[in-house]
Amino acid sequence: MINLEERIFSGSVLVFILLFVILGFGYNSIAKIAPLVVGIPGIFLATLQLLANFRRKEAKKKSYEGNFKNILTVWLWLAYYIFLIWLVGFFIGTFLFIITFSRFFSNFSLLRSVFFGGTSTIITYLLLSLLLEFPLPKGFFFG
Q1: What's the average model confidence in pLDDT over 26-48?
Q2: Do 39 and 20 contact (CB within 8 A), yes or no?
Q3: Can you tell me the distance from the alpha carbon of 142 to that of 37, in angstroms, rounded to the nearest whole number?
Q4: How many CA atoms, within 13 angstroms, populate the side-chain half-sphere of residue 112?
Q5: 119 closest CA partner among 94, 87, 84, 90
Q6: In whole angstroms, how far apart are CA 90 and each of 86, 98, 139?
């Protein structure tokens, strides 16, 4: 079958998220917010991914198996993100990370990178700070 592994993985993720949401309904009204905030968008995204896997035709196989350079690149980006969070806090660090990552690694234009970084940071702020009231790092300069 075409993309069998991807279909199995996407289906497994969808089932896992559905179970997560179903179990979340058993909690009291305050405790069920987190599973629903994470789970409902997760169900939507996992369903889209599963449908995309069924629509995709078999293409030339790209190897994503890690060689040392690829693994080192991922770890350096992660270290850069952690450093930014430590230095300027979660929201500014996330904004700067998304801009630089999408600009240099994904080759987005500067305007698209800023838009993507801004919308991602605003959505993260609304979910984590306003809705869940989750305390996030303020950074070395602002803490």
Answers
A1: 83
A2: yes
A3: 28
A4: 8
A5: 94
A6: 8, 12, 7
Asked if the model's pLDDT at residue 17 lies above 80, the reply is yes
What amino acid occupies position 101? F
Sign of CA dihedral 87, 90, 95, 99: positive
Token duo for residue 120? 């991602």
Average pLDDT, the chain: 84
Distance CA 44, CA 33 (A): 17
Cα–Cα dist 19/115, whole Å: 34
Query: Does the model's pTM come out above 0.70?
Result: no
pLDDT digits (tens, 9 = 90+) for 42-91: 888 888 888 888 887 665 555 556 678 878 888 899 999 999 999 999 99
Distance of CA 37 to the CA centre of its chain: 14
Tokens of 114: 């800023």
